[in-house]
Amino acid sequence: MANPTSDDIVITEKFLEELKDPVTIIVHEHNEKNELLEEFKPRLDELASKYEKVAVKYVQEEGDPDDKVHHLVDHFPALVILDKDGEDHGIRLYGCPTGQLYANMISIMHLLSTGDHGLDEEMVAEIGEIQETDIQVLVTPNAPSILETIETTQRISFINSNVKTCVLDLIQFPDIAEQYRVLGIPKTIINETQHYTGPFNVKEGLDILKNKISDAVE
After folding, report:
1. Whole-structure pTM value
2. Neighbours of 211 (CB within 10 A)
């Protein structure tokens, strides 16, 4: 189901009440109607009406460049969350966020609104050294141990604009699971060439990015 559970709502109430600066959720829709998204839209609209620092905008596909809502997205629906200055931090949610991915959507909003990434200066400096990197995190919404991996990659993207992170729900995009031969969750794809299966924290994630630790067999 697209609607959040009661536990999700508790998370929402807690984190959205702590927002400092406004954020905007841009929902990129495909021309073909997505039933899951249509079911979820009222919940997004409710968030925008209840929390003054939350705005929601719906655009068709990649958006209208004349309206300054033009983001490169690879799949639909795609959620792009902007900070108070309308800046895109290279974080994408592909698919309608359900289960733990709903909680992650709230976490991204909190990160962009408060700037509180929770990392020390040494780790921030290490993240700042990363060159151009594209990260895909492939998950299913209710698989255990996905949030730490997802939020690790998103914090890295927030700190370093060279790093782009997208999260894909394999339930909604089964062709992606087949394309990358996903046997374990989460599966992280780095620059389309490096594959890593399993959860990781920020320190482990940096080791994976820097040392190119990969699955033994792909």
Report:
1. 0.90
2. 8
